Amino acid sequence: MEEHDKEEGVEAGVGQAKWNQSPLVCHGHSRPIVGLHFSPVTPDGVFLASASKDGQPQLRQGETGDWIGTFQGHKGAVWSCVLNDSAFVAATGSADFSARVWNAVTGDVVHEFPHKHIVRTTAFERGLTATRLMTGGAEKTVRLYDLEKPEAEPFTFGPAPDSIRKCMWSLDNRRVLLSYLDTPGIDVIDLSSQTVVKRLLHGDGDGSSAVLDMVHTPCGRFMVTAEAHAVTIRHADSLEVVQRFSIDDYEVESADYCPERNVFVAGGSDMWTHMYDAGSGALLDHGRGHHGPVHCVRFSPKGDAFVSGSEDGTIRIWNMGSL
User: Of 157, 179, 240, 298, which one has the fewest beta carbons inside 10 Å?
Assistant: First the structure.
């Protein structure tokens, strides 16, 4: 790959804007970043939530990276920090065996839900009026909390075949998707019947790879997964594969796709961020600067930037220019 002038940036594929190779660097965490989550575009802007092993989840302005506040109270590593679609409410999952719901405006704890083991993943039901929160982790149990009735016992589903790495709602909130710490593939669970209705296999097609990351694109049309040495893009509604790309140069821990630019980004063990053409799979360029493996990458809902979080405890915002 040719070296490119840092001030001029890099062409991000046919018809796409430039990728600025001088990212905004966001300090504030003292230990590895293990999760990043953008809010949708709201009347107050775009917000970015970060989870870290330092136990201090943070909220930032999504475009500038400016620190807004820290959600204080967990007594262990925080593996997940997410915002609901309005960005008024945040949820966290922690190694202190608890999930917490926060007022994202004041930073106050609204609810605390004890668990029997590490809470690794949290996800709000989709929609501005949604009221349910899903959690999962080492307990191998899915819990659904109704935030309008927080004192009620949660709906539970399990036991899962393995510790739950990631949970995600389907677009219609009728199904949930689960990936696991070591078990390959993704289980699609119908909530009405409480049964696994589909199993998505990844990697080389034989289900040999655990899914390390999964995310819906901000537009909601696609789902992206990272599977160590592959990135898969699927239709979010049918879950049919659109494209699958093999990546052998490093272990991919996280990936995301920007359909408006037809590019995807990936990060992992080699400490760089990589941008690829989503039509051909060709590597367009890579971003250097992190001093540890890249654990998470996410596109902004505006498609004008992506963020990366690393073992080095920093978040970097890579500006791509307006669409």
Answer: 240
Q: Give the integer Cα–Cα distance in Å for 47 and 68.
A: 9
Distance CA 266, CA 23 (A): 16
For the chain, the average pLDDT equals: 91
Q: Is the peptide bond before 114 cis (omega within 30 degrees of 0)?
A: no
**Cα separation of 298 and 277, whole Å?**
16
One DSSP character per residue, 260-305 reads TTTEEEEEETTS-EEEEETTT--EEEEE---SS-EEEEEE-TTSSE
pLDDT surpassing 70 at residue 10: no
Q: Say how far apart CA 189 and CA 195 lie, in whole Å.
A: 5
**Residue found by looking up tokens 């051909």 in the block:** 280
Q: Is the pLDDT of residue 209 over 90?
A: no
Report pLDDT for 18. 53
pLDDT digits (tens, 9 = 90+) for 241-269: 999 999 999 999 999 999 999 999 999 99
Distance of CA 159 to the CA centre of its chain: 24
Nearest to 268 by CA among 251, 287, 247: 251
- DSSP 8-state assignment for residue 228: B
Q: Cα–Cα distance between 225 and 211 in angstroms, integer?
A: 7
Question: Edge to edge, what strands does the sheet with 315-319 contain?
Answer: 24-26, 315-319, 305-310, 294-299
User: Alpha-carbon distance 307 to 323, whole Å?
Assistant: 17
Q: What are the DSSP calls for 128-188, one per residue?
A: TT--EEEEEETT--EEEEETTSTTSPPEEE---SS-EEEEEE-TTSSEEEEEESSS-SEEE
DSSP letter assigned to residue 41: P
Q: Report strand pairing: 18-19 vs 305-310.
A: unpaired
